[in-house]
Specification:
Length: 373
């Protein structure tokens, strides 16, 4: 390790998780959700591992992420599902990126780009089945279908998929789940009746949580994110045999003895209770170690768990080693699979009142990702 810190990514774990999820998905295709730099794991190497392990497609939020994959040589189908007006749609079509549309105005914009480039846009129509985020709400669904069929007849678009997204699939038994599934089935039926959902159209609604809790919601494809990275989509139900792929490690930058009563870091929120050894860990909130971890989160250092002592700074935080030995250059593990006694990303998430998605996606750009097979 030649940098202050690194995120080690176990591609073998990602492949194991994808294979396990494919099995769970029965015969359905698997789309790997690789938005946000593959949840912080690194877009290209992770995407290649995901495709190599049996995913047939990739999903990103933004067009730019999909274009980055294409520039990196990825040829598998890619869907970008969050499109805002004025984005480089023609460029996306030229790169064979599939797009999602929730509104007739966006269909018009996409169709204009298709006419200009002479390439039919491959579209996934999104139904809002109860999350009230993306997607056309029930009342607007027939108009979206009508517009799509008009543009399809003209040759400007192809309808590749009809999809939706669950709001509460990670809360087993939540009443909205069954309602969303029913609403999705209604949206599909309307699409079939209108002639917009032939047998070639891919139906997809499940995220990771739905894959492990709702086999009836698989349809033709599932879209998995967090579980591919080895983090449980429903932590209270266990780990489902998934293996965490990321280990976040830093090298101690400085070790020193300080006297009893030493105030540590900004605000002196921690004061040493006796003469002790402090170690400086070179990762801070700019790297995704949330300031909120101050005095709460633990790391593994010198074979034992240590609390973050005092304020997390932009680039660093301190730990109190007591009289235990540690040297500058020694490794400190913030989180990993937990095999060596280190905390897991799940523990960090629980401690900080968030979800593992946020813990891993926040690891900053200056932390190099190092890949292991
Ligand atoms: C992020 C995302 C997913 C994957 O969600 P996970 O909970 O990480 O499996 C699937 N579909 C859409 C639309 C998403 O935004």
């Amino acid at each position: 390790m030649t940098t202050p810190a690194e995120a080690r990514v176990d591609l073998g774990a990602i492949r194991h998780n994808v294979a396990l999820l494919k099995e769970r998905a029965g015969g359905a295709q698997l789309m790997g959700a690789v938005k946000a730099d593959a949840y912080g794991h690194g877009l290209l190497p992770t995407s290649e591992a995901v495709l190599g392990a049996g995913a047939s497609r990739l999903g990103t939020a933004f067009i730019q992420e999909a274009l980055y994959l294409r520039a990196g040589g990825v040829s598998a189908p890619i869907l970008a599902w969050l499109i805002t007006p004025g984005e480089p749609i023609a460029e996306a079509l030229a790169a064979d990126v599939e797009l999602s549309a929730s509104h007739p105005a966006l269909l018009d914009e996409i169709a204009a780009a298709a006419r200009a480039t002479g390439r039919a846009a491959k579209l996934h129509l999104e139904a809002d089945t109860g999350m009230s985020r993306g997607g056309a709400p029930q009342a607007a669904w027939p108009d979206l279908l009508a517009k799509a069929l008009e543009l399809k007849a003209e040759g400007a678009i192809e309808i590749v998929g009809i999809w939706s997204h669950f709001a509460c699939a990670d809360i087993p038994g939540h009443p909205s789940v069954a309602r969303q599934l029913e609403t999705y089935e209604t949206a599909l039926k309307l699409a079939e009746q209108a002639g917009a959902a032939g047998s070639e159209v891919i139906r997809h609604i499940s995220n990771s949580a739905a894959v492990v809790t709702l086999p009836e919601a698989r349809f033709d494809m599932v879209r998995t994110g967090i579980a591919m990275y080895g983090l449980s989509p429903v932590p209270e139900l266990g780990d489902f045999g998934l293996r965490p792929a990321m280990t976040l490690v830093a090298r101690v930058g400085l070790v020193k003895r300080v006297v009893e009563g030493s105030g540590v870091s900004y605000g002196h929120l921690y004061t040493t209770s006796c003469e002790t050894t402090l170690a400086l860990v070179p990762l801070g909130y700019a790297d995704g170690v949330l300031r909120h971890a101050t005095g709460r989160a633990e790391v593994l250092a010198g074979g034992r768990r240590r609390l973050v002592a005092g304020r997390v700074c932009m680039d660093q935080f301190m730990i109190d080693m007591g009289d235990d030995p540690i040297s500058a250059g020694d490794e400190v593990v913030l989180f990993g699979p937990g095999d060596g006694g280190e905390p897991t990303a799940q523990e960090w998430a629980d401690t900080l009142g968030t979800i593992t998605h946020e813990i891993v996606t926040r690891i900053g750009a200056r932390v190099p990702r190092i890949y292991h097979q």
